[in-house]
Amino acid sequence: MSELRLTRELFDKIMLPVYNPVSFIPTKGKGSRIWDQKGDEYIDFAGGIAVNALGHCHPKLIAALHHQSERLWHTSNVFVNEQALDLACKLIKNTFAERVFFANSGAEANEAAFKLARYYAIRNYGQKKTKIIAFENAFHGRTLFTVSVGGQPKYADGFGPKLSNIFHVPFNDLDAVKKVIDEDTCAVVIEPIQGEGGLSVASPHFLQGLRKLCDKFNALLIFDEIQCGMGRTGLLFAYFQYGIIPDILTSAKALGGGFPISAMLTRDDIASTMQPGSHGTTYGGNPLACAVANVAFDIINQPDVLCGVEVRRRCFIAHLEKINQKYAVFSQYLGMGLMLGAHLAPSYLGQAREFVQSAAENNVMILNAGSNVLRFTPSLLISPDEIETGMQYLEQAIEKITCGRRNR
Length: 408
Ligand SMILES: *Cc1c(COP(=O)(O)O)cnc(C)c1O
Known about the structure:
With about 400 residues, this protein is α/β, with parallel strands linked by helices. The protein has 14 helices and 15 strands. The protein has helices spanning about 10-15, 45-50, 60-70, 80-95, 105-125, 145-150, 155, 175-180, 205-215, 270, 285-300, 305-325, 350-360, 385-405; strands at about 25-30, 35, 40-45, 100-105, 130-135, 165-170, 185-190, 220-225, 250, 260-265, 330-335, 340-345, 365, 365-370, 375. The strands form 3 sheets. The chain has a 7-stranded mixed sheet, with helices on both faces. Strands 1-2-3-13 form a 4-stranded mixed sheet. A 4-stranded antiparallel sheet has the order 11-12-15-14. β1 and β2 (about 35) form a beta hairpin. The radius of gyration is 21 Å and the shape is globular. Pyridoxal-5'-phosphate binds next to α5. Pyridoxal-5'-phosphate (PLP) binds near residues 106, 139, 226 and 253.
């Protein structure tokens, strides 16, 4: 039984007021279905913000967690743990990487990436090589370094001095990068598909151009694949789609299928500038997290799961298009694979959050990405039946919004 003294109102009284969650409280999930305190059922098109790539309570993840929970929970980095080694082997075998660092959250993986890039550059090229180039509307996490590199002032302002020597230029604008990149640049940091920023997809020409510029100026190319990696685009990592290779890549969100874990991947020549003590974390690569992530990795990295992503995207878009023919709320579809955005039509601009709210009231969980884009980041295993039901709910939500409009 749920505890009904634990209410949404209580949240507003006792939690740090940095979130504004919807009114119902989820207590149970299975696949892409969620139940709230009252037992009402919801369809989950949000996937915990691209985290629950295998849905809720996948039996194999439960088994992995259960198995590990009876063996070893935590030992610290004073000791080697087998689960972390095993997961690192898988990441290395399937990517460009030769070295792995585990942390607990996306921001921490990026923090490690940015520190490594500066450390490497200073050691190899001198004290002045600290410039970081990043992009407008980028999101890299909420630590002070990661909000400084992120391209959204609303997340970075108000906390005193930011980290310096960080430059922001427009996404997909190679000429803008050319104007700021120089010998003092240590890294260019980019999400191949911007998540929080609105589902913009980097063009192949742009990423190939960044690769060439980084090579020319001895800067490291860092891909933040925290949201777009681990199968989300239909390939294991989004960089596979582009035929170029980053120097550092960060992964999190779907990596643990819902258990907190993140990773920073890089090459040996970059990693080997660091030594014991240069960086660290107490929990990173925790045995429980790695045990779950090992199994999540094996499931996600199967051809049928990865191929299913494009099939499901088409199914989502077909449904959205049907809704759109009736209500004309969307202007275009964005993103890649199951990182899908629906851009609102001109007369609904700025109202993404209202759509999210109305969807929740009509039993379907969706997200916004900025104020003009509805974001869908469901389980990679979501079934046709779950999509169908969720879309019926979404249509009801949209009908209410458009109808409320007409009556105004
Ligand atoms: C979510 C996200 C982060 C931050 O991850 P946290 O686990 O919230 O620290 C960083 N970069 C991208 C692209 C993300 O989507």
